[in-house]
Design brief:
8 helices; 59% helix; 0% strand
Length: 148
Amino acid sequence: MKRRLLRLYSALHARYGPQGWWPARSAFEVAMGAVLTQHTAWPGAARVMANLHAARRLEARRLAALSPAALSRLIRPAGTWRFKAGSLLALAKFLLERAGGRLEQAVATIPFRRAAQPTEIADWVWMLSQGTYMTGETIVISGGLIVR
C-alpha cells in the first residue's frame, strides 16, 4: 500500500508539478494558515489572511507586536479566535526567540535538524489507513520538537 501511494504521488508530481495550492508568499504565512484552518473552512482563514495582510502583520515581528485582543479582532472570521490568537502569538514569539523570526531557520532547532520528508509523512498516513481500532487520537509528527 505504501509503495503504491508513493508511486501515485510521484506520478502526479511528475505529470502536474507543484500545484501552489496553498496561497502564501512565505513559509511563515503557510504556518499561520495551518493554524487558522484548524476547526474552520478555508474561506474564513482566507478572510483572516486578507485582514492580516491589510494590517501589515504577516511577519513574525509585526504579528508579535500585537496584543492578544488586537490580534483576536483581526482573526475572528476563522473561529476559535481566542485560542488561535494565543497559538499565532506563540508561533511568532518562538520564531523570534529561536530563529530571528524566520521559519526556515527554525528548522535547525528541531532535534532531527530537518523538516519531515513526504515519505515519512506517508508512513504515518499508511499506518493510520490500516487500522480500524484507532479513534480520536492525535499523532504528533514533529521530529522531536515540542513547543508549549
